[in-house]
DNA sequence: TATAGATATGCTAATTTCTGCACAAATTCA
DNA sequence: TGAATTTGTGCAGAAATTAGCATATCTATA
């Protein structure tokens, strides 16, 4: 009953939802554009059933929303901020010392990829 | 090896670490002040062993740091921002419709508690 | 020796995830 | 009209994983 328990339980649930690499990947892709199950399947290289089920998990907590269009179902982030917030979490990860180097560059790439549509130039929105 | 897989795997791991209410509670308490295992045990109402083990999980990803003082071991957040970032996650939770009301006020309380050191004396906000 | 905490062990229980399959909805075309 | 196709959902069941807890033991400080 204490609000702390309530809120921390809800947060824990949210974190549980996000504790799967594929679901993170999905959110990452969905940040760039709305996608169908089929498209995600190709991008992620897993079965369409698996994609659908991961989407069901995300949907169950209203992190994504479905929009039917003809025989396609496009998914998009209910709150695009989610992707941004997740990426901020990178500041708290601590990879193996042995892979710190690799991770650092991976993080750099990921940051620019999540921040912009394209990792390369094309957009010069980011100063400094 | 694609950086996306690397980063999303690391993030998933981080989220996994945070997907337990008690660990969130611990972080919440640690945000306010450094605490010993014994103190946390009293606050959370669980055994000292359980506290210690949850701390071990948090420690394993360097989310908390231990500082020995005499025979006490004080824990504190390695990056205090963590608590702030976690609380922002509240924007993405979606409680049961039946408990939305309750949740909303709980969230309000939690926000002020996490935002400030002091939850403010005895608020009387609960109406219907 | 007593206190504070960490760690090892063992058990249990629960959860998650995947594969394959069947089903449903929208579409296409004969 | 209606059969076949595309697209996606959901279930069932197996399997792995794993997470959490309590007890008990071990270390370090005092």
Short overview:
Chain A has 128 residues and is mainly α. Helix content of chain A is 56%, strand content 11%.
Number of domains of chain A: 2
Judging by the overall fold, what is the CATH architecture of the largest domain in chain A?
Orthogonal Bundle
**Percent strand of chain A:** 5-15%
Number of helices of chain A: 6
Total beta-strand segments of chain A = 3
Biggest sheet strand line-up of chain A: 1-3-2
Helix/strand structural class of chain A = mainly alpha
Largest sheet of chain A: 3 strands, antiparallel
- How far is the N terminus from the C terminus of chain A? 47 Å
Rg of chain A computed from alpha carbons, rounded to a whole number of angstroms: 16 Å
Oligomeric form: homodimer
The secondary-structure element order of chain A is HHEHHEEHH
CATH superfamily heading of the largest domain in chain A: Winged helix-like DNA-binding domain superfamily/Winged helix DNA-binding domain
Could you characterize what this model shows?
- 2 copies of one chain form a homodimer.
- Chain A has 128 residues and is mainly α.
- Chain A has 6 helices and 3 strands.
- In chain A, strands 1-3-2 form a 3-stranded antiparallel β-sheet.
- In chain A, helix 3 crosses helix 4.
- The longest helix of chain A is centred in the last third of the chain and has 16 residues.
- The C terminus of chain A is likely disordered.
- The interface between A and B is large, with 47 and 47 residues.
Provide key terms for this protein.
homodimer, mainly alpha, Arc Repressor Mutant, subunit A, 2 domains, three-stranded antiparallel β-sheet, 56% helix, disordered C terminus, DNA-binding
